[in-house]
Structure formats: structure tokens, C-alpha cells
Amino acid sequence: MKKRIKLKEEEEHFPSPIRQRVCKCGCGHDFQPNRKDHLYINKQHYDFDYNTTKRKIKNKHIIEVEKTLRLNNRILEKHYQSNIGNKKKEPVRCYYEILKSDGFTSKNYIGVSEEGTEKFYLLYDYYYLLFRNKSNQLIIEIYKN
Ligand SMILES: [Zn+2]
């Protein structure tokens, strides 16, 4: 309440046609703009926004890839945990289509490990290989790190 009264007094003493606005940098502070295109409290706030926004755009693709890696890892975990059951024996085999419908993508992984003719794709906590069964269905074999 006190704050609101104080603002009113300020407005009466310094009448301005431009209304108070929230600084664009995201700091959450109100300020009194001098011009219509005055969007930041000062240069520091402008610089902060410019630098962080630029950095965000620059790293956007990295953030997107990391998201798919984390999602892949989560999906492997889900199917590993639900299929390992009381068998407690690796690997877990699933239809690749089922993981794909969960959002799994074979496009992104953090590494490849080749053992003989087999190629293992690595995620954070799990790794997998893909092969086709006799019915030509794509099977994913999941291992825990
Ligand atoms: Zn600010």
C-alpha cells in the first residue's frame, strides 16, 4: 500500500505522458521511461539482455540436441526397467516402433562403440543396438551402463 501511494506522489510531481514499464531484461524492475523506445532501466540492463539472448540463440541447437538425448535416455530407462522385471538379466529387447512412439529418436546419441560386427549406441545411463528379427521387425536391445 505504502509503495502505491509513493508512486502516485511521484507521478504528480513529475508528470509524464509515458507510463511506467517493466524493464525488458527480465529483472522485474519498473522504471519510468523517458522516451517511447526506452525499454531498459540503463545500459547495464540492456547489455545483460543482449548478451544472454544472443547466447541463447547461439546455443539453441545444442539445447535442442541435449533435450533429445535426455528424452532418449529416459525412454530407454522406462523400457529397461519395465522389461527387466524379475528376469534381472540383460539385455532387454523391445520393438523399436514402441520406443519410437514414445518419442525415441536414433538420430542423436553420445557415442558409438563397435564390438566385432555389432554397433552399440551410447546414451547417458544406457546403450543399445538395433537389429532386425526373422519377421524383419526392428528390435532394440537395451543395456545398462
Ligand atoms: Zn532490467
Query: Roughly what is the average pLDDT, rounded to an integer?
Result: 88
User: How many extended strands?
Assistant: 7
- The SSE string, one letter per element, is HEEHHEHEEEE
- Count helical runs: 4
**Span of the ends, CA to CA:** 58 Å
Largest sheet report = 5 strands, antiparallel
Number of domains: 2
What global shape is seen? elongated
Helix content: 40-55%
Q: What small molecules does the structure contain?
A: zinc ion
Low-confidence stretches: none
Beta fraction: 15-25%
Radius of gyration over C-alpha positions, nearest whole angstrom: 27 Å
Strand line-up in the sheet with most strands = 3-7-6-5-4
* Class derived from helix and strand content: alpha+beta
Structural notes for this entry:
With 145 residues, the chain is α+β, with helices and mostly antiparallel strands. It has 2 domains: 5-58, no CATH class; 60-144, no CATH class. Helix content is 41%, strand content 22%. It has helices at residues 2-13, 43-58, 60-84, 96-101; strands spanning 21-22, 30-31, 92-95, 111-115, 118-122, 126-132, 138-144. The chain has a 5-stranded antiparallel β-sheet with strand order 3-7-6-5-4. A hairpin with a 3-residue loop joins strand 5 (118-122) and strand 6. The longest helix is centred in the middle third of the chain and has 25 residues, at 60-84. The mean pLDDT is 88. Bound molecules: zinc ion. The site of zinc ion has 7 residues, from loops.
